[in-house]
Amino acid sequence: RTIAPATDFRDLEVVPDGTQIYAVCNGSSSILVGSWGPGAQDFNPAPDSLDTYTLNTVADPLGIAIDPCGHQALVPVEGGGIQIWDVKPSSDSWGRQIGFIPAEGFDLTGELAINPAGTCLLALTASGALLSFALPADSLVSQISLDIDPQDVSFDPLGRYAYATSANGSVHVVAVDSLG
Q1: What's the whole-model pTM score?
Q2: What residues does 82 pair with on adjacent strands?
């Protein structure tokens, strides 16, 4: 089945219980939210059963990552920084920006990864750096140069290693404990 976009999708994440999708679109200054019901038992991925909402981000979003608990969405935006949004449906602040991680001057690509424990956020920059942020402190811990044209970043299932891919096909493996 296909869910027709209202605009050009840039990135997409699904919450861990599968009941909501969050998408960011090129040039939209918003997050598109799709919801299928209050619990995974109600999941029905038919386009005609999808309720959609739009959350305004003010700046254009570059990507999106959902924390392992499905409570927060982290959204890097043009101009620097990562917005933190409450995406826990039962929360009083659902659908609101609840925090911000400063990252001015880093030229984020939009590619993010959160470790399985939810304590470390990785972000790639256009200059080939890998930034490591402590969560929930929302502070920059380290910056290492990968000297690549970065494409994507991911953690292994245990969160011990991060993998960053390059446009030239190489993969950089980084021991997470070396990030600080």
Answers
A1: 0.86
A2: 76, 101
